[in-house]
Write a structure and sequence with these properties.
single chain, about 290 residues, mainly alpha, Serine Threonine Protein Phosphatase 5, Tetratricopeptide repeat, about 80% helix
């Protein structure tokens, strides 16, 4: 039988302390404090041994001890440490641990930190698990909390990313609402005003992907009243041309407009994908007419 590792020894000590009964001269609070310290040591030792699942489990047990002590700050931190360990190959557990961190932080009124952790959840859903819907929910939740804490620029970043995901999920009205929200806030500062035309372009493309040139045109006119420089921008002119080509069912002119725009303002993946969706809808309308 192999000798237990230092981490296993510490874990066994922690379990023993956790399950021990309190005597005349010791309180349950001190028992959980000692057990929590031992679980933390075991978790760090497992991390050294590159046993990340075991490390995360030990941090989770530490969090339970801190909670039983009434130390919610320390419990939140232990859950966060558990999440960092679980990220090494156990993403479902990492999300659960981060969610526990968020719950504690919101109860403590620490919404800025809760938003940071919720944003981490969104990244895991997006980059690792490819669950766009869940990522979108987390980004919107983080955005609302950043907003409450007056971190408007960070909130806007979350809302813009959420809008992009809404569009990828074909939830176009929700995407438009978020782009317009970000644009409206960006209009209030000379530092961010330059980016408004990009958000309005994306909102316009979403209306077109939703087969709604009437809304696209109405919104385009509305944006022109919000910022009188917008109608003369390349983005506004591009949207106008697209609306006309779609109304005329002219696929060739639609494609030519995209090629011309791309030569000056390189299209990113998001715009390329949504323009393909719009083009397919024009082709489907042509097929229905023949």
């Amino acid at each position: 039988m192999s000798k237990p590792s230092p981490a296993q020894v510490l874990l066994a000590k922690a379990d023993k302390k956790y399950n021990s009964s309190t005597g005349w001269f010791s309180s349950s609070a001190s028992k959980y404090e000692e057990a929590g310290d031992l679980y933390q040591q075991a978790a760090n030792a497992f991390k050294l041994e590159k046993l990340f699942k075991e490390s995360g489990d030990a941090f989770a047990k530490e969090a339970d001890c801190r909670d039983k002590q009434g130390e919610r700050d320390e419990a939140a931190n232990a859950w966060w440490n558990a999440a960092k360990a679980y990220k090494q190959g156990h993403l479902d557990l990492a999300i659960t641990a981060l969610s526990s961190t968020v719950t504690l932080l919101t109860h403590l009124g620490r919404f800025r930190q809760a938003a940071d952790r919720e944003k981490e959840v969104a990244q895991l859903y997006l980059q690792e698990l490819k669950d766009l819907g869940k990522a979108c929910e987390s980004l919107e939740r983080a955005g609302e909390w950043y907003s409450q804490e007056d971190a408007k620029a960070t909130a806007n970043g979350c809302f813009k990313d959420a809008a992009d995901l809404h569009a990828e999920l074909n939830e176009f009205p929700a995407a438009i609402a978020r782009y317009e929200q970000v644009a409206n806030h960006s209009l209030t500062s000379s530092l961010t005003k330059y980016s408004v035309k990009e958000y309005w372009l994306r909102a316009g493309l979403c209306a077109l992907a939703n087969h709604d040139t009437v809304t696209a045109q109405r919104n385009l006119n509305k944006y022109g009243t919000q910022d009188v420089t917008f109608p003369s921008t390349r983005e506004a002119k591009f949207l106008n041309v697209l609306i006309n080509t779609i109304d005329n069912g002219d696929e060739e002119a639609f494609t030519a407009a995209i090629v011309e725009y791309d030569q000056i303002s390189k299209l990113d993946n998001w715009k390329t994908n949504i323009l393909l969706k719009i083009k397919r809808s024009i082709q489907n309308e042509e097929d229905n007419l023949t």
